[in-house]
């Protein structure tokens, strides 16, 4: 390809694929070639033919690639402060573009306006992630809480409700991570009540309860686990999410089953836990926590050569499941 749009698009696809197959380190090396994307060389003056004019400039690199480059460069330099600066720069640009779209005469394009609005929202989530990576949890909490303060009243679009559920999930995880369990609990909407057979004393009001999403179910289940309330945790992870909950309903319940197994270990039900973890591996799942926990379990219940055999068995299954990196990892010692 000879034009920059195609080249950058292909580059974006390549880098995304590298990240998806777990070769983020290669992507980090390759992305160094792009150097500083905020450099003047990456900007071109817009011609009236492109719909611009008045000396406006446009960035040569597609938005998605710019975001990916910021993340990958932050990873390779372990410098999230730098990423934060770039995110703020992009946010300034997005706000400017949004203003430009709104003031387009005679007819502002609602699609373009929506695009820049969603990019701005996406950037604020990325800022929160960068703050977490930097270990500045307090700032991340403040930032996410400010995002939750949605305007007062009025009808709320489904999209806004979903956005808020995403922010709520991040905030909840963050609260659990920093050990503020009461705040985590308070951020959750009440789970939907199963329809009760007896007539309710309180007739339903017109005020609709906040939607209870799948992510809320995960947080609700995570709380007892984080608090070490293992029996409650076992109950929570054994309970399927309410059928009404949406927002990326899970393709399977790998996470739930894995966490259930961990809770079972803490209550001494080792064989039950082992069965669940073995099943997960047999089904072709391979991820760090699963492999690690299964090997630890075998170490707990077996000795000497038996342990070695069992761990070799796990390694073979991990390999068969495509977990090449898992088996090759330094911690995976026989
Ligand atoms: C937990 O978070 C809430 C809400 O941000 C805050 O008001 C409270 O002070 C926090 N509690 C602790 C112990 O940090």
Automatic annotation (TrEMBL):
GO cellular component: Golgi apparatus; TRAPP complex
Name by which UniProt lists this protein: TPR-like protein
Keywords, in A-Z order: Signal
Extent of the signal sequence: 1-26
Regions of compositional bias (Pro residues) in chain numbering: 188-202
Cited InterPro entries: TPR-like_helical_dom_sf
Spans annotated as Disordered: 185-209
The UniProt record lists the keyword Signal: yes
């Amino acid at each position: 390809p000879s034009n920059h749009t195609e080249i950058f698009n292909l580059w974006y696809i390549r880098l995304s694929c590298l990240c998806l197959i777990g070769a983020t380190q290669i992507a980090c090396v390759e992305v160094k070639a792009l150097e500083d994307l905020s450099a003047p060389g990456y900007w071109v003056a817009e011609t009236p033919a492109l719909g611009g004019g008045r000396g406006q400039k446009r960035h040569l690199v597609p938005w998605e690639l710019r975001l990916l480059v910021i993340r990958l460069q932050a990873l390779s330099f372990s410098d999230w402060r730098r990423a934060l600066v770039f995110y703020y720069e992009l946010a300034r640009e997005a706000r400017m573009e949004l203003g430009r779209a709104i003031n387009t005469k005679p007819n502002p394009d609602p699609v373009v306006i929506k695009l820049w609005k969603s990019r701005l929202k996406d950037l604020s989530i990325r800022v929160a992630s960068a703050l977490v990576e930097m270990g500045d949890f307090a700032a991340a909490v403040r930032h996410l809480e400010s995002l939750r303060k949605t305007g007062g009243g009025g009808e709320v679009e489904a999209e806004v409700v979903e956005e808020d559920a995403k922010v709520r999930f991040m905030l909840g995880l963050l609260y659990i991570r920093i050990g503020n369990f009461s705040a985590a609990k308070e951020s959750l909407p009440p789970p939907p009540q199963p329809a009760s057979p007896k007539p309710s004393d309180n007739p339903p009001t017109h005020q609709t309860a906040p939607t209870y999403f799948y992510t809320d179910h995960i947080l609700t289940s995570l709380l007892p686990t984080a608090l070490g309330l293992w029996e409650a945790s076992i109950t929570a992870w054994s309970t399927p999410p309410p059928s009404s909950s949406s927002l990326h309903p899970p393709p399977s319940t790998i996470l739930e089953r894995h966490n259930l197994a961990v809770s079972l270990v803490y209550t001494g039900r080792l064989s039950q836990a082992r069965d669940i973890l073995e099943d997960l591996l047999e089904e072709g799942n391979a991820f760090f926590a699963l492999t690690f926990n299964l090997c630890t379990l075998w170490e707990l219940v077996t000795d000497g050569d038996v342990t070695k055999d069992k761990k070799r068995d796990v390694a073979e299954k991990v390999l068969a499941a495509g977990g090449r990196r898992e088996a090759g990892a330094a911690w995976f010692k026989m």
